[in-house]
Amino acid sequence: MKIAICDDSREDRDALRALLEACGHGFEIREYGSGAELYADMGYVRECGIVFLDINMEGMDGLEAAGRIKAECPKVHIVLVTAYVNYALDGYKVKASRFLLKDDLERTLPECVEDILREERVVDTPELPHQHEVHRKTRQLCHGTDHREGDFRPEVQIPGSKAAVHIV
Predict the structure, then answer these.
(1) At what angle do helices 10-22 and 105-124 cross, to 10 degrees?
(2) Segment (H or E) for 42
């Protein structure tokens, strides 16, 4: 998964990168020192699964950058990272996925990342466990029987016609 880190503090970017690397998922990580620098690289941001944004930055702050990114990439997970809890409510305005305090990242970042990865795996899973049951129920409805095995193509007879619709 591609990740962007945007913070005007080199020290905070380094700390966040180290924590992300310690998660052990082999993330591809790019760092940015300002919201404008991040927004200028929207080609990369569009491919990101997560964007970590400091809120309090000069020029284009994290909230403005988050709003612009979400407008173009509504599915990207924005995680706002700041030292100031009073910005938490502003995160809702930009539809941030999470809000993390810098002084608690060692505890909260791994859980945040795992939650987002779980969410993405659910979205990306090609066949969910319950889909077999849905197919079985569809067969029951179409034929009035329970066909569990074999090459089966349910069909529905069209009333007043000799034609049938095959459900694939």
Answers:
(1) 60
(2) helix 42-45
Backbone angles phi, psi at 48, to 5 degrees: -75, 150
C-beta of residue 62 within 8 angstroms of C-beta of residue 32: no
| d(C-alpha 96, C-alpha 110), whole Å | 17
Model pLDDT, residue 91: 79
As a whole number of Å, the CA-based R_g of the chain is 23
Backbone angles phi, psi at 96, to 5 degrees: -70, 145
Instruction: Give the residue with greater pLDDT, 103 vs 88.
Output: 103
Q: What is the CA 3 to chain-centroid distance, rounded?
A: 11
The 10s digit of each residue's pLDDT in 127-162 is 444 444 444 444 444 444 444 444 444 444 445 545
Residue 27 pLDDT > 90: yes
Closest CA to 7 of 100, 114, 93: 100
Please name the amino acid found at residue 69: I
| DSSP character string of 128-153 | -TTHHHHHHHHHHHHHSS---SSS--
Give pTM, 2 decimals: 0.70
Amino acid at 107: R
